[in-house]
Amino acid sequence: QGDPCSNNESMLYDADLQVMMAGSTFRKVKSHSWKKPRHFRLLEDGLNIWYKSRWAGRGHSTFLVSDVEAVRQGHQSEVLQSIADEFPPNLCFTLEFRGRQGNLDLVAETPEEAGAWVRGMRKLIHKAKNMDEKERLDQWVWDWFLKADKNKDGRMNFKEVRKLLKMMNVDMNEDHAFYLFTMADTSMSSSLEIDEFVMFYKMLTQRDEVWKLFQDYSSDGEMLSRGELENILRIEQQEGDGCVEHAQELIDRYEPSEMARSQGSMSLDGFQLYLCSQEGSIFNTSHKDLYQDMSQPLSHYFLSSSHNTYLLEDQLRGQSSLEAYIQALKRGCRCVEIDCWDGPDDEPVVYHGHTLTSKILFRDVIATISEYAFKVASDYPLILSLENHCGVEQQRVMAQHLELILGSLLLRAPLGGEAPQQLPSPQAGGPVLMRKIGCETLTDEVSDEDETVNPDPDTKLKMSRELSDLVVYCKSVHFRGFQHAQAHYKCDEMSSLSESKARKLAKEAGADFVQHNIRQLSRIYPSGLRTVSSNYNPQELWNVGCQIVALNFQTAGLEMDLNDGLFHQNAGCGYVLKPGFMRDSELPFDPETPQEHSGYAPLRLSIQILSGQQLPKVNQKEGSIIDPLVRVEVYGVPQDLAKEETSHIQNNGFNPVWNETLNFIVHNPGLALVRFVVEDHDKASRNDFVGQFTLPFTSIRPGYRHIHLLSKDGTSIPPASLFVNVSTSELTSGPD
After folding, report:
1. Is 523 assigned a ligand-binding role in the annotation?
2. Mean pLDDT for the chain?
3. Of 448, 483, 477, 446, which is closest to residue 461 (Cα–Cα)?
4. Does 314 belong to an annotated binding site?
5. Rounded-to-integer distance, Cα 500 and Cα 537, Å
6. Enzyme catalytic residues
7. Alpha helices in 494-636 (DSSP H)
8. What is the DSSP letter of 469?
9. Sequence-ordered list of residues with C-beta below 8 angstroms from that of 462, at least 6 positions apart, any chain
10. Rounded CA separation 196/186 (Å)
11. What pLDDT was estimated at residue 732?
C-alpha cells in the first residue's frame, strides 16, 4: 500500500489549489433577489469542499469534489443570467452536480479568485475521474484517517478508532477492535500514524471470501502464477479465448508489487484490486462501448425519452427550467418534450398549460438544446416533441427560432431529398429530428393534456405552414387501431398514446403492437393524473416494442432505475437496438406467451450473494448502523417478473456476509432487466433504501463479480459494492 499522503503533495505546489485551501467568500445566488455571502474552502484531503454562512456559528456543511460533474464559467446558468447586469461574467461561475442535485451559482469578489476556483475545481475533477483502483483505495484510506483524527495531531488514539468504526458502519466487539489496534500499533505508542493506520485498514477490510477463492487456485497460498490466474478466468469467470493475454494484462494493471509483476504473478492485494475494478464488475465492459448495429431504421430502437422535460418538480406548481433540459440530455435522453403557448411580446413560452408552473422562453429552450444536444452523451438524432398550443403568429416565431438557432442541426427535408420509404437510421447524420403534437388541422391529433384531462373539440389549432414544413419523419397522427394503421401505412407517421391506453393494447393485442412497432414509431406518455410527476413502469411498453416511452426524468425511483439500466449500455447514447425477435415481421412475438415463439430459449439464473462492502449509512446519527439485506428483482415479459431476497445482517454495513443463493428462470432473456437493491431492514416500518444497480440480463458477466452500487439519484457511491457469484445455464427440464 502506498502512502496516501503522496496523493496530496502536489496540492501544496499548485497556486490555484492554495487559493482554494486558504478559503474564499463568495455570494451564493439563488435568484435575482437572493444573494448571500458564504465562506468556502478546500479541505486538506483534497476531496471535500467546506462551507458556512457568517451567521451559522459553529454549523457548516461539506460536499465532495467527486459530486461535481463540471464547472461553468461566466453567466452560464439561468440564475446567473438573471443577474448579468449586476455582476460581470468574469466574477461568476456555476458548480454543476451529478444526478438531480441543483447547481451552485457563485459570484467571487475578484476575477483572479473566480479564475483560481474554476481552474482548481477542474483539476480536482479531472484527477478524481482519472484515478486508478489503487489511487482510489489510497484516497479512501486517507479520507477515513482525516475523519477519525479529531484533534488533528496526525495520530489516532483508540477512542478515535472506536468512533471511526461507528462512522464506517461497523459494530465491532471492543476487544477485537483493540486487538486490531494493538497489532497495527508497531511503534507501541498507543496511537496510529498514517502508515500504521493503513495496516489497520487492511486488517479491517480483509476479505475472507476473496482469500478463499485465491487459496483455491494458488499452489503456494502466497501468489497466483499467470497460469493459475488463467484458470480462474477460464473456469470461474467463464472467459473463453484470450485468457492467457488477459491474465498478463491484469497482472500488469493491478499488481502493486513490482517484483511480482516482473515474475508474472499476482498477490492477494492485486487480485482484490482486479475484482473491485470495472473489469471485475458484473456489467460487461464491452457493452459500455457502442457495440450495437446503428444502421437500422429508427423504429428498430428503444429511445431514452423524457416527458414534460422542462419541469424540475411536480406538474402543477413546479419550476420550469432550462437546467431540466441540460440534465435530461446529460443522461442520454434522445426525445425531449416542449409545451408551447402564446407568450407576451410575441415570444412563445414553455410551461405546463393551465397550471401554476413557471414559464420560460421557447427561444431559450431551443438555444439550450442547441448547445447540449450533442455535447455530452450522444451524437445520435434528437427528437423534439413539440406540444403546440400557440396561435399561427407565434407558430411562425417558433419556426424562425428553430431555423435560426439550430441552423444546420435541424433536418428540413428527407435524407436523399425524396419522399421517405422507410425511417432513417440513427447513424444517418445526428440531426435534430422534430415532431409535433397538438397540430390538429394538419394531423388530427390531440395533445397529451387534451386527451387525458380535457377532450374538448375547441382545442383544435390551425397550423402555420412554416412550422409544419419542419416536420419531416415524425408526423403525429391519431391512433385508430392496428388494422387502420397497417392499411394506411406511412413510415413517417407516428402516434402518441397515454400509458393506460397503451397498457390496454399491450395486454389485449401484444403481438399486433409488436408488429406495428417494427414499422412505425409509438410514443407513450404518463397519465395526466400523475400530478406529482410519478412514473409508470416502462418495461410493459418496451415488451411490445414501443420506442419512445416518455418518463418524468426529474423523479428518482424504480422506473428511472429501469430506464437508466436499459440505456447504460451502448455507450449511453440513448439508443438501444431491440432484440431480433422484435424486428422480425415474419415470426410474430407476444410477450404474454413467450414460450410460443420459435426462438424460445429460457435460461436459469443463479446468483450467490456473497458479501457487501462499505455500504453507506442511511441514518447519519452517531452510533446508527444498518441491518442490510439484498433483494434481486427481474423485470421483463410478465412471466419473468420475480423478486427474491436474502436475510438481513444485524448491525453491519461495512462488510456483511450473506452466502445465500437466489434462483430465477428467465423466459425471455432479450427483454429482461435485473435490479439489485440493498435495503436497511426495519421490522417496525418500511425498509430504507441503501443503494441499487440495474442492468440488462444480456449485459451480465458470469463468475465472481462486484456490483458497484448507485444512489437513489443514479449517481455512484464508491466504494459501496456487493460481491456475487453469477451463473446462467440452459433450462433443460421444466420450470420449478
Report:
1. yes
2. 89
3. 446
4. no
5. 11
6. 307, 352
7. 499-508, 510-519, 539-542, 558-567
8. T
9. 391, 392, 441
10. 7
11. 75
Q: Is 651 annotated as a binding residue?
A: yes
Sign of the CA dihedral with 273 first, then 133, 282, and 680 last: positive
Give the residue among 3, 722, 736, 700 at the shortest CA–CA distance from 287. 700
Rounded (10°) CA dihedral 421, 423, 427, 432: 120
What pLDDT is attached to residue 436?
A: 37
Query: How many helical (H) and strand (E) elements, i.e. helices and strands, does the chain have?
Result: 24, 30
C-alpha cell at 485: 394503421
Residues 6+ positions from 693 with CB-CB distance below 8 Å: 282, 565, 675, 676, 707, 708, 709, 710, 722
Q: Is 339 among the annotated ligand-binding positions?
A: yes
Report the C-alpha gap between 38 and 97 in whole angstroms: 18
Q: What are φ and ψ of residue 171, in 5° steps?
A: -105, 90
What is the enclosing helix (H) or strand (E) of 442?
A: helix 440-443
End-to-end Cα separation, the chain, in angstroms:
48
What pLDDT digit, counting tens, does each position of 73-82 carry? 999 999 999 9
Residues in CB range of 5: below 8 A, 6 or more apart:
142, 194
Provide the 8-state DSSP code for 651. Answer: T
Amino acid at 236: E
**pLDDT confidence of 500, banded at 50, 70, 90?**
very high
Whether 112 has a binding-site annotation, put simply, is: no
What's the half-sphere exposure (Cβ side, CA atoms, 13 Å) at 151?
9
Provide the grid cell at 713. 439519484
**Cβ contacts of 410 within 8 Å, gap of 6 or more:** 402, 403, 431, 432, 434, 470
Please check if 387 is assigned to a binding site: yes
The residue type at 586? E
78 among annotated binding-site residues: no
What span, in angstroms and rounded, lies between the C-alpha atoms of 218 and 453?
67
255 annotated among ligand-binding-site residues: no
Is the previous residue joined to 457 through a cis bond, with omega within 30 degrees of 0? no
Task: Burial-class residue 289 by CB neighbours within 10 Å (0-12, 13-18, 19+).
Answer: exposed
* Spatial separation of the C-alpha atoms in residues 252 and 264, rounded to whole Å: 8
Give every CB contact of residue 593 below 8 A, 6+ residues apart in sequence.
none
Nearest to 255 by CA among 295, 289, 225: 225
